[in-house]
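User: I'm putting together notes for a lab meeting next week and I want to include a structural view of one of the chains we've been expressing. I don't have a solved structure, so I'd like a prediction I can at least talk through. The sequence is below, exactly as it appears in our construct file.
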Amino acid sequence: MGDLKPVISELEGEENLIAAAQHIVQALGSKKNLTDDARRILVELGSKLSTMASLNDNKSEGVSEMEERLNIIHEKVMSWEADQSMIWDSGPEEASEYLKAVDEVQKLIGKLESRSFAKDSEEVELLQRSCDVLQTAMARLEEEFGYILVQNRQPFEPEHMSFRSSEDDIADEGSIVSFEDESVEDMRESVSRGSEEFIIDLVRPDVIPDLKCIANLMFVSNYDQECSQAFICVQKDALDECLCILEMEKLSIEDVLRMEWASLNSKIKRWVRAMKIFVRVYLASEKWLIDQIFGEVGSVNSACFIETSKSSMLRLLNFGEAVAISHHKPEKLFGIIDMYEVLTDLLPDMEALYPDEAGFCVRSEFQEVLNSLRNSVRATFLEFEKAIASNTSVNPFAGGGIHHLTRYVMNYIRNLTDYSVILNLLLDDHVPDNPISSSPHARPVLDGNRSDASCSVSVSPMAFHFQSLISILESNIDIKSKLYKDASLEHLFLMNNIHYMTQKVKDSELRAILGDEWIRKHNWKFQQHAMNYERATWSSILPLLKDEGIQNPNSNSVSKSLLKERLRSFYAAFEEVYKTQTGWLIPDLQLREDLRISASLKVVQAYRTFVGRHNSHITEKHIKYSADDLQNYILDLFEGSQRSLQSPHRR
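Assistant: Thanks for the context. Below is the predicted structure for the 651-residue chain, given as structure tokens.
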């Protein structure tokens, strides 16, 4: 016996050393800031230490003792195989007992495999039986693992997120359908932006330890693929359900290309909102869940996350690609920019979620869609210029008011100012080196503090294109004005439309983009058209209130008959103006009032002077309208409702 003491002492020393090493590995493994590589090394080291411990542990244990242990474990495992209920539904004690049994058979296999002496037939048979029991148990744990995930899934409620909660919060872009539509005053509202990330519990937190325990046991038993697949299968369904909650139906590129604009517009809004919530909330939470469950079993986290999320992520990106390659209609521009903006905002999130080589396929697809949307924004903007230039009319615009095209274009570009930063980036390579282009529709924006119109300055890409758009619009409106046969109405139409353009620039962010010099120039333009309108309207009427041509041919006295004829001609001309121009429209109240006052000062004053000067030659019966009547009649002009004068006003 004395000869055995050194051997026993040596074995005890090895056991203590192994135990101490295992304790250190366990302590290091509990740290949260370990890298995946460090954690993998510790897991491998722990596995080797367990093997070494098993070599020293009960080396004298015989086959019969191990067989007896296996029989007890087998009975426990098979009893649950015969039961139709789930183990984790029977309470924590039953689940714990089952895990202990599985851990025992796993250790038993380790002992049988590590025995240094040649295995006899009994040991080989025992090892095979142990592996069969372990395989049965692993299949059950795989089933239980998926079951726990499904049964403890937390309801996902995106309306509780701080992002936009409904489509109603986004301006109704559906009204942007054509140049004939006037309801474009508020085309869009900026999409809420930010870099917030929200982690939510996708499954109940109290089951995480059980899931983690099952995962650890399956991984150490070399059933890591089965465990990972169980997780991936369940969570892929959960991600698909999330997309359904976010109202993102599965659509092919062909489906999107065939879609009517109103329907597509609604889906673009949902997509913009869904992308933010899906990436910053759901995927971030999915990544956190994977780290919680698989954080101690090596570098499986990244691969598991990619396999779980890839199909859902590509489904969302597929919609973005379809929109990007669809027809470049002007009404799509706001939606496409919103899509581009949200992807730009999410780019850092995607790089953090898919950082390694395995995630390259998702990152690459994300970048391709981003590039496609960028190109689509540029193409759509240029298509808008073409659409303005090609908008033709056969008939003059009724009433000479503000044309639908003018309203549409000015509100369109006014709302584009919300995207000034991103548009300057996207349109940067679409501006010639020399801002003074030979094209009549490409004029440089001038410094608002300088009045020298010949001195150009460097302009931003967006300002250059806005200048070009408005120049094209002015040319189109000028062509449309030629459809009027009445010169007065032609100038009134141009006055209304240029005044509208000018006010839109003055009263919005466009002022900072186009500059005060642009405003001064267009103020002068519409004032010139106002003067030309007055000249065309009253230049043939006011001479009727002058004395030339009403004297008797044989004396210097006024001919009563000629005077009466002159008054009749004036009344007839005034009545024609009244009848015609009450049907014309000046929508702007101040501009309408200014033009009425100007007309009143010219016409009423001339009439009052003329009648007063010849009061002795005409009687009251020859005076059809008083000066006050004429002034009141002028107040009826430009209301857009045609009237006729039958008798003096009774107000």
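A couple of points you could mention at the meeting. The CA atoms of residues 99 and 214 lie 8 Å apart. The chain is about 65% helix and 0% strand.

User: Perfect, that's what I needed.
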